[in-house]
TrEMBL record:
Pfam families in UniProt: CbiC
GO function term, MF aspect, one: precorrin-8X methylmutase activity
Organism: Leptospira alexanderi serovar Manhao 3 str. L 60
Alphabetical list of Gene3D superfamilies matching this protein: Cobalamin biosynthesis CobH/CbiC, precorrin-8X methylmutase
Protein name: Precorrin-8X methylmutase
Keywords: Cobalamin biosynthesis, Isomerase
Amino acid sequence: MNDMRQMTSLGREIEDKSFSIIDEEAGSHPFSKEEWEVVRRIIHATADFEYKDITKIHYQAINSGIQALKKGCPIVCDVQMILAGLNQDRLKAYGCKTFCFISDEDVIAKAKEKNSTRAIEAIQKAKISNLLNGAVIVVGNAPTALLEIERLIRLEGIKPALVIGVPVGFVSANESKEAIIKLECSNVFSVPYIITKGRKGGSTIAVAILHALLLLSSKRGKK
């Protein structure tokens, strides 16, 4: 059963009222109708209107993300918390499988051996497993995961369908997001992205973005 059917009439009324308040208080914005569906779901999840100003959406992000989901793409996440928040029924309806390797014993061992981070080695495992090309990659916690994705795009030619890059934190969070944005101005693959500039972000934001894309995909109609 999907999240729409699980919601009661009162729950629907509360959500609709919340979105009406967001639309009214947010005022004008530069986003398309579908992009705004993503941004206002972030605001709904956080009650923080600053996300209207710090959310950056690549011009191909919505279409690329929806098309990938409809094809049953892999969903590669940096932390288990994202998996816990995702609507697995809706993902399964499209044939999408979720992956998170950060707690795998071999990943932990390699991180210790190389004095790396588990997040980096988890992304490496996803690459070795041929999961990154055409994938939706979701980073909500670990800037080093996003930096590794940027490196793999720039130096090894991987081509994800979409990078949701919203790691939260004080060390390398903003830098990792800026690195993804700068790919757009380089001669390498300009990966479609949805990011939140600066230090703000987190797994809750990542889940909100992916759920917004799933709802948009449903509105456009299945495969």
